[in-house]
Amino acid sequence: MLNTMCLNCKKLNNGCKGTKNQLWSGCIYKEVDGSIKVIDKVKELVKTDLSQYGYTDLDWVNDIVAVAGGGKVVIKEKISGEYTEKLTEMYL
Predict the structure, then answer these.
(1) Rounded distance between C-alpha atoms, residue 34 and residue 87, angstroms
(2) For each of the chain's 92 residues, which pLDDT tens digit applies?
(3) Using an 8 Å Cβ cutoff, are 29 and 1 in contact?
């Protein structure tokens, strides 16, 4: 998975391929695209990736509420009428 710092960068796929290195937290070339929300980009990437493998029940992706880094996401789950947050491995 791409480092989350790349997800809202104007240069991603516009002269830059981004990085998968999860240890890096800054980039001297980064230009923030304020119209892109990182969480929405993560949801889009998860849906795209899983649909390539034939997964069709992807409604749970809408319950992703945060990116924890290191390829993990926080998912809000409904359990017994209450929502809880669960740290889950991302499948990218």
Answers:
(1) 26
(2) 778 888 889 998 889 999 988 887 789 899 988 887 877 887 887 788 788 888 887 787 777 777 666 666 667 666 666 655 555 555 43
(3) no
